[in-house]
Design brief:
This protein is of the alpha/beta class. 34% of the residues lie in helices and 19% in strands. The strands form five sheets. Strands 2-18-10-13-9-3-4-5 form an eight-stranded mixed β-sheet, with helices on both faces. Strand 3, helix 6 and strand 4 form a beta-alpha-beta unit.
Length: 418
């Protein structure tokens, strides 16, 4: 037995995961055996053990000091609008901006078989979410006479399909500026803390949440690539917002002028009870509080002019200086656990299909790193101009609502240019 296998065995015994060893020994298919071996080698068993133990702990009352965050309203910048726009535009023309799209998810909730970015929201053009985002980049590249590099974060689950989709569509004519990198993954565990085997016969892993983007950018050497290209600022957004404005000179100019290393966009909550995370300050540092953490009293608080004190929804549209990405990518973020339904193979080789949640997946949230920033700028934008997410098959944030927002915005735009 090689030394690596001896080390793997001792770790599996130490962390009570010997069932994986038994399973590994039974695998007949050599190709699969190699893949599982690699997985066994790469798992951080201590981390998984700690994360599982954390699911058993009672959540302590947080005594942190929470305060509202200052924000700038894009609509009310007045003469400053042109001033910030000019600063941002200069940096964009100098090739200092890159865009990152987090596209590791599948379109399962939308009833779509394939990566979420390949989903067609039902426009007359039948453009996918990827193509709609690419249109924005192509337009900006032309406007500012610069190549804006586009980095797309996939997952092990959808990387191959995503790359194939881009190849098939000839990279939407933007090929030389597109780079793919893969998000990290963590094993899922059952209610006893045992790591699960997926129905494909490999260890069942799930993407490590959008908070994994910083570490993935660093580990995949994409940050080095950006530096090589002269990039200083990086926009990071999700694939499911078809109105995401990835190139925004006002946001960039504001961040540069204010001397901060991070900036984010917000839209005002549609009602105090809207289920969104909001920007605020925690112990003096910028952060985002999940809707589940905000008391009704806080959610309903208003300032003298009647504005919600905690009303700035986090859109997952953020801009960071590359130095902040490196710093955040080299420090580990806290992981949150989610109790999910998971289909798996039991120790006797039988497939178990869950009817209720039976497994924990662990993920990090992008905004948990905001505390690493000294300060950040929050720019309030108009929902109807910049936020049309596609999350659910029907109802709120569905293809139907996104389509309407997209069409309204572009119709307005074409009337403006006539």
């Amino acid at each position: 037995m090689d030394d690596d296998m001896i080390e793997i065995e001792s770790k599996l015994k130490k962390y009570n995961q010997e069932h994986l060893l038994e399973y590994y020994k039974k695998i007949k298919d050599e190709e699969k055996k190699k893949k599982v071996y690699k997985q066994l080698q790469n798992i951080d068993y201590k981390l998984i053990d700690n994360l599982y133990k954390n699911t058993k702990k009672e959540i302590k009352e947080d005594s942190a000091k929470i305060e509202p965050i200052e924000y700038w309203d894009k609509e009310r910048l007045g003469s400053k609008y042109d001033f910030y726009e000019e600063i941002g535009e200069k940096a964009i023309r100098e090739g200092k901006l890159a865009a990152v799209t987090m596209a590791g998810g599948q379109g399962t909730r939308l009833g779509h078989n394939g990566p979420k970015g390949t989903f067609d929201i039902g426009l007359d053009s039948h453009k996918s979410l990827f193509e709609l985002l690419c249109d924005g980049l192509k337009e900006a590249s032309k406007k500012y006479d610069v190549d804006i590099p586009w980095f797309i974060m996939t997952s092990r689950e959808n990387n191959e399909q995503t790359v194939e989709f881009f190849e098939k569509n000839k990279y939407f004519g933007y090929g030389k500026n597109i780079y793919f990198f893969i998000q990290g993954q963590l094993p899922m565990v059952d209610t006893e803390g045992k790591i699960l085997i997926g129905e494909n016969g490999l260890i069942k892993e799930a993407a490590d949440g959008h908070g994994g983007v910083y570490e993935s950018l660093v580990k995949s050497k994409m940050v080095d690539k950006m530096k090589e290209l002269g990039v200083e600022w990086v926009f990071i957004g999700g694939v499911d917002n078809c109105l995401a404005k990835m190139v925004d000179p006002v946001l960039m100019g504001l961040a540069i002028y204010k001397g901060v290393t991070g900036a984010g966009k917000s839209v005002v909550k549609s009602s105090p009870q809207e289920k969104v995370g909001v920007f605020c300050k925690k112990n003096g540092k910028p952060t985002v509080m999940e809707y589940s953490e905000i008391t009704t009293e806080m959610a309903e608080q208003r300032d003298e002019s009647g504005e919600l004190l905690y009303g700035e929804s986090h859109l997952l549209c953020n801009l960071f200086n590359i130095s902040a990405i490196e710093r955040m990518g080299n420090s580990t973020l806290p992981y949150h656990s989610a109790f999910k339904k998971a289909t798996y193979i039991d120790k006797d080789g039988n497939k178990v299909v869950a009817t209720s949640p039976n497994a924990y997946k662990f993920e990090a949230f992008l905004f948990d790193a905001f505390g690493e920033l000294d300060d950040m700028v929050v720019l309030r934008v108009k929902r109807e101009e910049e936020f049309a997410p596609v999350k659910n098959a029907t109802g709120v944030d569905s293809p139907e609502t996104a389509r309407e927002l997209y069409n309204n915005f572009h119709n307005k735009l074409s009337h403006k240019h006539k």
